[in-house]
Amino acid sequence: LFGTEYMAEARFNPIGAERMLMTLQRLDKNPSSGLDRYFMSHPDPARRIQDVRRKIREMAAASPASYQPPNREAFVRRLDGMITGNSTEDIVVRDGTIYDRAHGLIIRAPSGWVPSTAPGMLFAMSPLNTRSQLSLVAQEVPVSSLQGANAQDAVRRRLQQMGLQYVASREARTRTGERFPIDAWAGQTQSGQVGVETTQFLHGDHVAVFMFLAPSLSRTQSPLGQVLQDASIDAARARAVEPPRMKIGTVRRGESWAGIARRATGNPADAEAVANINGFDLRTAPQAGLVVKLPADVVRG
Length: 301
What we know:
The chain has helices at 2-9, 15-27, 45-62, 72-77, 151-161, 223-229, 235-240, 257-264, 271-277; strands spanning 91-94, 97-100, 105-108, 113-116, 123-127, 135-142, 165-173, 179-189, 192-203, 206-214, 232-233, 246-250, 291-295. It is of the alpha+beta class. The longest helix has 18 residues, at 45-62.
């Protein structure tokens, strides 16, 4: 609500706040319910839209204002070349495969799993089944923050400080022959027992740490090991995969969002995602001549 007021004071039309929240609502495929709502740091988008609409009406009634006309085209054209989808400059996600361009690691997500980048992490992957409690995350830890004789010893000490109990060790070998030591751990959380598998390798001034989490782990099978066995380290191949980027174009006469999606990602099924990225609902037909974002990739639900 403060942001809506600031926009109006700066002579930007505050309707933009409402439209931004409407975009968030379109992208929110799994709205929270029940107890989840009590642990959210922000209200859900639908509630925020209602609040902002009320604020805009209050401001308009108090003092009608004239706002600077929006220049959507100039803004959209500034986005030409930005990275899109689930990728970053160093981590490219393509066709279910993670290309870690910084480390040369190429990892294929297991069947039914979705890989992604995540804030504060190198990458993550989890099953499509949202009820599953399995996940694999990878992050970088500065060497200066670790203490130990080597990377494995340092990570072990850190995990023990977190309250995890060491269970056993295994080894996995990638397709290209690299060996990774895997430690198995057990711990207790507020949600119940958790099993963890970890591995790590030194890279410059940091340690790359992989963690597989599950409610429990088998003593005979290693999920993290299975993922690594299908992985490879090939710096040249990983670096050659460029992250998908945004292009800017205009809507052709009679073109639908499905046609625009086909032009952007090659997949007309991405129509809704492409429409949302451009700030529109799928039901709103694009107008010929409109400047639009053409992402080479989108985040698929």
